[in-house]
């Protein structure tokens, strides 16, 4: 790594203000994998162990956490495999990296980092984010117990019925999910909007200015529900904790706690049953079907640098894939291409979408946003009247800077017919992402950006995706009604399930996806517990 350079103060300031990204996006949008950056270690003997389990779940985000909890509550023992580590937060902790001071904890060790084209001196680590570079798209994939809930801003939005029905299969039944499954998720995550006492404080001036501008533009405005105990943010204002919420520095994980992420909700309750074990730093490298119909899961157990210290071959009659859209789909595509699983549906790898993600930097020196911006998110504009053109945009805090930059972050997402695919590259021996160059141009250029420009008017608006097309909301690849049934059962593959973003139809109906992924998983587990335990599980 002799050519690596540390992140200088100048580079960091440029990164935060010029990258036009939200929190971690300001960093990871520039951390692009490149080949040949990791030198091969000398050959050494690595032991292989074999285990058998009743249920194996790959991934510990929303789909994996919900699967583990609901099966355990039904009396089923479950092993959860998580490639990342645990990230335990609490008042004044330093567990998570700060967005204003990036370090090795940001990056998953298989992401080779560059910053504005130059390697950065981050040692290999089981960090929070894997950057997957494909054709015309950078997909950001989380790692760690809790999955994406560790590092997402937390916007917990339920789609409107008309928009949901336009993009999801009718048989999914929004009315039922509205009565049962969305409220169940909301209760578990204890969602709440930011209290006025917080919003009216000096650190939240930028949120109030955004709201004023949205109202002036005649666009809808609402507080955004978040899985946060806002008393933690109020305690920060009172000087009882170091800032994490109130200075925008929690975009890569909230050190003070108070965020109801999957690790402290679903996973914690699952482990409390005594029937769930979470195996950390376990990376699944491939899956296969045995002649007797059981599933083989090949795993590398690593240390915190990503070095393999043990290989495991797990056998199970029930395998639930919940590793996120990109990595679940990669496992299926590889298994299909290599013949490890025969007769997988032809739709595997197709229907992959970005949820119409767009990230902007809004620069308005005259508005005096302040060098410190409270976060994570207070207000958004839900433009959902037309189900075929629905979109949302929000304001998110920038990490703190030493001087006033006059910049803040705006994030948009919306419905889109643009789809890519994940295919097997035989030359590389791996599954790769392919995205059409103008995949989401229609929703982004015709609707999201014009609406945002009504808010920003003559101010400078920088489009981060124009420089580095990226998504934090990868969806699809094992789509419902194509590869799986609505409950995530892979067609023609007894005992194989997909219960994560890969099951979604490439969009989450103009919302960020977490709440719908969770509600779909809750709905699926109701059916699986009722009908599959005892016969398949």
Automatic annotation (TrEMBL):
GO molecular function: cholesterol oxidase activity; flavin adenine dinucleotide binding; steroid Delta-isomerase activity
PANTHER family named in the record: CHOLESTEROL OXIDASE (PTHR47470), FAD-DEPENDENT OXIDOREDUCTASE 2 FAD BINDING DOMAIN-CONTAINING PROTEIN (PTHR47470:SF1)
One of the Pfam families matching this protein, by short name: GMC_oxred_N
InterPro entries per the UniProt record, alphabetical: Cholesterol_Oxidase, FAD/NAD-bd_sf, GMC_OxRdtase_N, GMC_OxRtase_C, TAT_signal
Organism expressing this protein natively: Gordonia amarae NBRC 15530
Keyword set, alphabetical order: Cholesterol metabolism, FAD, Flavoprotein, Isomerase, Lipid metabolism, Oxidoreductase, Steroid metabolism, Sterol metabolism
UniProt domain Glucose-methanol-choline oxidoreductase N-terminal: residue ranges: 127-334
Lineage: Bacteria, Bacillati, Actinomycetota, Actinomycetes, Mycobacteriales
Pathway: Steroid metabolism; cholesterol degradation
EC code: 1.1.3.6, 5.3.3.1
The protein's name in its UniProt record: Cholesterol oxidase
PROSITE patterns in the record: TAT
Domain Glucose-methanol-choline oxidoreductase C-terminal: 466-521
Similarity section: Belongs to the GMC oxidoreductase family.
Highest taxon above the source species: Bacteria
Names of required cofactors: FAD
Record's signal peptide: none
Biological processes annotated in GO: cholesterol metabolic process
């Amino acid at each position: 790594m002799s050519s690596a350079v540390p992140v200088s103060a100048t580079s960091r300031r440029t990164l935060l203000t010029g990258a036009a990204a939200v929190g971690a996006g300001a960093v990871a949008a520039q951390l692009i994998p490149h080949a040949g950056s990791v030198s091969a270690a000398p050959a050494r003997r690595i032991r292989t162990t074999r285990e058998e389990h009743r249920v194996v779940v790959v991934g510990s985000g929303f789909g994996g956490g919900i699967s583990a909890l609901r099966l355990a509550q039904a009396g089923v023992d479950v092993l959860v495999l998580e490639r990342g580590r645990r990230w335990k937060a609490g008042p004044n902790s330093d567990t998570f990296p700060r967005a204003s001071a990036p370090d090795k904890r940001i990056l998953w060790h298989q992401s080779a980092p560059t910053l504005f084209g130059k390697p950065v001196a981050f040692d290999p680590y089981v960090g929070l984010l894997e950057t997957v570079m494909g054709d015309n798209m950078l997909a950001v994939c989380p790692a760690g117990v809790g999955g994406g809930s560790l590092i997402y801003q937390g916007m917990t939005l339920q789609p409107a019925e008309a928009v949901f029905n336009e993009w999801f299969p009718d048989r999914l039944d929004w009315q039922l999910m509205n009565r049962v499954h969305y409220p169940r998720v909301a209760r578990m995550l204890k969602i709440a909007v930011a209290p006025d006492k917080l919003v009216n404080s000096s650190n939240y001036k930028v949120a109030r200015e955004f709201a004023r501008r949205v109202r002036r533009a005649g666009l809808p405005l609402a507080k955004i529900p978040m899985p946060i105990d806002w008393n933690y943010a109020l305690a920060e204002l009172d000087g009882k904790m170091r800032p994490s919420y109130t200075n925008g520095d929690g975009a890569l994980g909230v050190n003070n706690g108070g965020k109801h992420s999957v690790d402290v909700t679903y996973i914690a309750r699952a482990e409390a049953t005594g029937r769930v074990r979470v195996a950390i730093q376990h990376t699944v490298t491939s899956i296969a079907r045995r002649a007797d119909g059981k599933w083989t899961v090949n795993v590398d157990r690593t240390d915190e640098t990503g070095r393999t210290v043990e290989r495991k071959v797990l056998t199970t009659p029930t395998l639930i894939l919940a590793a996120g859209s990109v990595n679940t789909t990669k496992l299926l595509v590889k298994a299909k291409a290599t013949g490890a699983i025969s007769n997988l549906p032809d739709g595997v790898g197709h229907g992959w979408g970005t949820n119409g993600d767009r990230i902007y930097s809004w620069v308005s020196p005259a508005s005096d946003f302040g060098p410190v911006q409270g976060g994570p998110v207070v207000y958004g504009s839900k433009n959902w009247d037309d189900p075929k053109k629905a979109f949302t945009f929000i304001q998110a805090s920038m990490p703190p800077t030493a001087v006033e930059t006059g910049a803040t972050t705006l994030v948009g997402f919306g419905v889109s017919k643009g789809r890519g695919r994940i295919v097997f590259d035989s030359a590389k021996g791996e599954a790769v992402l392919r995205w059409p160059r103008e995949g989401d141009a229609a929703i982004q250029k015709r609707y999201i950006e014009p609406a945002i420009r009504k808010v920003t008017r003559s101010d400078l608006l920088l489009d981060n995706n124009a420089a580095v097309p990226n998504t934090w909301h990868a969806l699809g690849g094992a789509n419902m009604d194509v590869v799986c049934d609505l409950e995530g059962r892979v067609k023609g593959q007894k005992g194989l399930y997909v219960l994560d973003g890969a099951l979604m139809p490439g969009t989450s109906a103009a919302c960020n996806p977490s709440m719908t992924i969770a509600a779909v998983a809750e709905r699926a587990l109701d059916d699986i517990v009722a009908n599959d335990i005892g016969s398949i599980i």
